[in-house]
Amino acid sequence: MDLFSSQKTVFNLPQAELIYIPHFYTPQKAHDLFVSLLENCTWQQDTITIFGKTHLQPRLTALYANNTKSYSYSNIIMQPQPFTDKLLHIKTAIENEANTNFTTVLLNRYRHGNDSNGWHADNEKELGKNPIIASLSLGASRYFHYKHRTIKTERHKLLLESGSLLIMAGEMQQFWLHQIPKTKKNVGERINLTFRKIV
Ligand SMILES: O=C(O)CCC(=O)C(=O)O
Ligand SMILES: [Fe+2]
After folding, report:
1. What is the ipTM of this complex?
2. What is the distance in A from the centroid of ligand 1 to the CA of 151?
């Protein structure tokens, strides 16, 4: 870890805990992890059904866990693969930072600016109440938008840079929504890893 790894921003938000650590990994280490995960993960592109119409999900995903519990969201049921050594290593580093244990990592691969992740909360039952979700970003920078469900003045965006760690906790998944919007900018590929506890 680099000299700046301890720098963090704790956002002051109603009904949410949100912490941003820009230099969790150095740019070089983040690049190395990005290349390795791009090559070695078992990426899939699922079909989602919205209002009876089927679409391909606008990104690739992969799921790894230390148990066999499936993860379902948006009509998709994902079955995990066992953790690789590389992913286990990242998991341990992030567990030390977030002071919690995770069972599962969901990886998202945004191939270009037209890949995205629509407004949602990570509020599936299997995550439990007030889950801690730690989100590592690698590769191209993309904006993370987040908004309160009812306080309309609470709308914010944050540029997630390569090597950064974003920790969502408290009541955030109950009271807030988040998204990675499409962008018309000519952005490169990005991988995001969200570590979760599924029990
Ligand atoms: O790509 C990101 O930064 C966010 C991913 C996300 O919100 C999710 O997988 O639930
Ligand atoms: Fe999410």
Report:
1. 0.99
2. 22
Protein residue whose Cα sits closest to atom 8 of ligand 1: 194
Model's pTM, two decimal places? 0.96
Summarised one tens digit per residue, pLDDT across range 53-90 is 899 999 999 999 999 999 988 888 999 999 999 999 99
Indicate whether 136 belongs to any domain. yes
Q: Structural domain tally of the chain?
A: 1
Range 4-20 average pLDDT: 91
**For residues 131 and 41, what is the distance between their CA atoms, to the nearest angstrom?**
25
Let me know if residue 3 belongs to a domain: no
Please give the Cα distance from 65 to 164 (Å, whole number): 22
Distance of CA 147 to the CA centre of its chain: 16
The CATH number for 158's domain is 2.60.120.590
| Residues of the domain holding 52 | 9-196
- For atom 2 of ligand 1, which residue has the closest CA? 192
